[in-house]
Amino acid sequence: MKKKHMIILGIVIGILIIGLLVAGNYFYGEGIKRGTDIELHSESETVNAEASETALSIIEEAEEWYATQEPEILEIQSYDDLTLKAGFLKNEESSGKAVILAHGYRGKHDDMDDLVKYYYDQGFDVLMPDARGHGASEGDYIGYGWHDRLDYVKWIDLLIAEYGEEDILLHGNSMGAALVLMTSGEELPSEVKGIIADSSYTTVKEELKHQMKYLYHLPSFPLLDVTSVITKVRAGYYFGEASAVEQVKKNTRPLFLIHGDADELVPTEMAYELYDAAGGEKELWIVPNAGHTKAYTVETEEFQQRLQSFIDKALE
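Request: output the structure for the sequence above.
Response:
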């Protein structure tokens, strides 16, 4: 009888393991694999404060201006031999200043079009990479900023070596914000003068835990842990190691953190955790009535004023 119970128990355990592996591969395909169209937990239409006519006019003008530009396409080879591409706008009045704009999850470099004109008008050259696994860049998985941080070190080196940039800023939204914060913990050249992160998560594990709760109504354990192991095998990283919090502790550059107090996609609490952990000079702006990456839409003029003040201090 005991042997029979052991056999039944073994079968049940085997079924559970197979089920977890199947589920883990499913969630890998949904959240990590390139090209899967997934609808993340998002915000209701009433989350964001209504933008003013002036704000809408500024953003519309910027997007229309960007549509008339023809960025040069630059390439680098990543440490793991991927060809990564970026759009590059060389300012007609270039003065050795450049900004690298980092887009969000399953986006592309054109998604940053509303900010390009702002930086261009301030005399910056503008580099807009497609993250690995996105846009025109190679890669069959999404790194959530973790492996991408090493790619950004290469983009920085390219701007210095090929274009003589002397003052470089990093500015990212959402996943791009986590990316630039993860980059902040690397050994960066002195030309990098400041970092702007809008709506960053703390770690990939915590953000995916949040998504599983609200999108699938599932507990993170053990599915997220199984998916993390599968991601390590297939993409080379565990969710827990992909940490903006740990990286930002090593930051030495001026840092400007922005987050909406109505963000339902990346909890606002994460901004406070990042701010508390960050090294170097730092500033935190929690934007009232703004959802995920909507600070620029909700408070366009104040956003530009605060950003200009940060840039002026960072480039002193």
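The longest strand covers residues 83-89.
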